[in-house]
């Protein structure tokens, strides 16, 4: 059974930072990433990384502020979020798949999504 567990969300003031973590189990994945969804809005691609090559992709709204990274242990990734803005408030979901382009496209199967962790940025 595939399971993805996010952690690290919370309340932070604008301009602050948070570091999210995600651990996937049940499969060996080739890529992992993050999406977010704010109330009343569609889900939005945030970041993704491949495992062997370390290639990275970011959504336009977070470039220069967020950094995705891989842990030494496979299937573990982080999302370092700096210079947070009120519009970053959302539930952040971890995603794992076998192709990074599938993650970026938002077509990852439902079983490979985490339950999400809430990030709230106060203005």
**Terminus-to-terminus distance:** 40 Å
Give me the number of helical elements: 1
- Unreliable stretches, pLDDT < 50, 5 or more residues? none
Run of helices and strands: EEEEEEEEEHE
Average pLDDT number: 95
- Beta-strand content bin: over 45%
Shape: globular
The description of the largest β-sheet is: 6 strands, mixed
Number of strands: 10
- Adjacency order of strands in the biggest sheet: 2-10-9-4-5-6
Structural class computed from helices and strand pairing: mainly beta
Rg calculated over all Cα atoms? 13 Å
Tell me roughly what share of residues is in helical segments: under 10%
Oligomer: single chain
Overview of the structural elements:
The strands form 2 sheets. This protein has a 6-stranded mixed beta sheet with strand order 2-10-9-4-5-6. It has 123 residues and is mainly β. The protein has one helix spanning 100-105, and strands at residues 3-7, 10-13, 18-25, 31-37, 44-50, 56-58, 66-70, 76-81, 90-97, 117-122. The protein is globular, with a radius of gyration of 13 Å. The model has no long low-confidence stretch (mean pLDDT 95). Helices cover 5% and strands 48% of the residues. Strand 4 (31-37) and strand 5 form a beta hairpin. It has 1 helix and 10 strands.
Describe the SSE topology.
Blueprint: E1 3-7, E2 10-13, E3 18-25, E4 31-37, E5 44-50, E6 56-58, E7 66-70, E8 76-81, E9 90-97, H1 100-105, E10 117-122
Parallel strand pairs: 2-10
Antiparallel strand pairs: 1-3, 3-8, 4-5, 4-9, 5-6, 7-8, 9-10
Entry keywords:
6-stranded mixed beta sheet; 10 strands; 123 residues; 4-stranded antiparallel beta sheet; mainly beta
